Amino acid sequence: MTVAGPQAGERGRLRVGLACDREVRRRYIDERDLALLGPAADFSSRAFAVPAPADGRPSADAAAQQALAEFARPLDVLLVCHGARLSSARTGCAARPG
């Protein structure tokens, strides 16, 4: 498998991050899955357990959104899963370098 992209090409490996709550990480991410990802990417995860509005909008918790932006900043790929409804356009912009 070939991994392409401006940042990945510089290092040869993608940086993939998962933002979710601890229970989602425990139930859905198996060490065998990570072993398959291992040759192409470095994986990291961060637990977020912030209540979000029932209508599906992202949480308005500014500190949690800032923490997500900081977690995402060095990543090439960010996966945000249920249990971490924090992503918004503002969070995405804050995560972009420069």
Give a quick precis of the structure:
The chain is of the alpha/beta class.
What does this structure look like?
- This protein has helices spanning 6-11, 22-28, 31-37, 62-72, 89-95, and strands at residues 14-20, 41-47, 77-80.
- It has 98 residues and is α/β, with parallel strands linked by helices.
- It has one domain.
- The longest helix is centred in the C-terminal third of the chain and has 11 residues, at 62-72.
- Mean pLDDT is 75; it is low at 1-6.
Write the layout of secondary structure elements.
Layout: H1 6-11, E1 14-20, H2 22-28, H3 31-37, E2 41-47, H4 62-72, E3 77-80, H5 89-95
Parallel strand pairs: 1-2, 1-3
Helix pairs in contact: 4-5
Number of domains: 1
Structural class: alpha/beta
Roughly what is the average pLDDT, rounded to an integer? 75
Largest sheet: 3 strands, parallel
> What is the molecular shape?
globular
Strand content: 15-25%
Distance from first to last alpha carbon: 30 Å
Poorly predicted sequence stretches spanning 5 or more consecutive residues: 1-6
Spatial strand sequence of the major β-sheet: 2-1-3
Number of extended strands: 3
| Helical run tally | 5
Radius of gyration: 14 Å
Order of helices and strands: HEHHEHEH
Question: How helix-rich are the residues, as a percent range?
Answer: 25-40%
